[in-house]
Write a structure and sequence with these properties.
With 185 residues, the chain is α+β, with helices and mostly antiparallel strands. Strand 1 and strand 2 form a beta hairpin. The chain contains seven helices and eleven strands.
Length: 185
């Protein structure tokens, strides 16, 4: 089994009481936990990754809805995600966040990102009322699929690894300055 590696060791960025330190020197305060949750609430697309029961890595793009501090997405009952993702399984999630407005149409500006680990909770078809969770989530699932869709609920845990959140577009050029670890609370 692979050992877990902290990205802080390699990125040179560590967070101390809401302030980051880059290679021993203090830098500007990073994004707050509330700011990261706000960005996740505005977005609706994520890449989820996990390991299959046979040990193969998988990733897939999903459209999600945020309710409270949980992400929800619907999948077809017979899809590989519904068949292979298990209750309690740990997953990796990356949410790309478009930055730059109109400027991004002229200049190749990479998206900001929020990455984190999450535990999956699997809700078989018909066991979760989407409207009770979120009207936004309900609107993401077509009427004809609501009764037959498996709902996957992701509960973030640990820390957010952010890139480009709470920094200027210019600062995104420097990976060390653009990265931060923000607690998930």
């Amino acid at each position: 089994m692979a050992r877990e590696v902290s990205t802080e060791r390699y990125s040179g960025v560590e967070v101390f009481g809401g302030e980051s330190r880059t290679r021993g020197r203090a830098t500007v305060p990073r994004a707050s936990t509330e700011q990261v949750w706000g960005e996740l609430g505005k977005a609706s697309f994520a890449i989820v990754s996990h390991v299959t029961p046979s040990g193969e890595p998988r990733s897939s793009g999903v459209v999600y809805g945020l309710s409270g501090r949980h992400l929800y997405f619907a999948v077809a009952r017979q899809s590989w995600k519904a068949r292979q993702i298990r209750d309690g399984q740990q997953m990796a999630v990356t949410v790309p966040l478009r930055r730059g407005g109109l400027l991004s149409l002229l200049v190749p500006i990479p998206p900001a990102t929020v990455s984190f680990h999450a535990r999956a909770m699997v809700h078989p078809p018909g066991t979760l009322d989407l409207r009770s969770v979120s009207k936004k989530l309900e609107s993401l699932v077509p009427d004809e699929r609501r009764a037959t869709a498996t709902i996957l609920e992701l509960v973030p845990e640990g820390t957010f690894l952010t890139y480009g959140i709470g920094v200027s577009l210019k600062a995104m050029i420097d990976p060390v300055a653009a990265q931060a670890h923000v607690p998930i609370t």
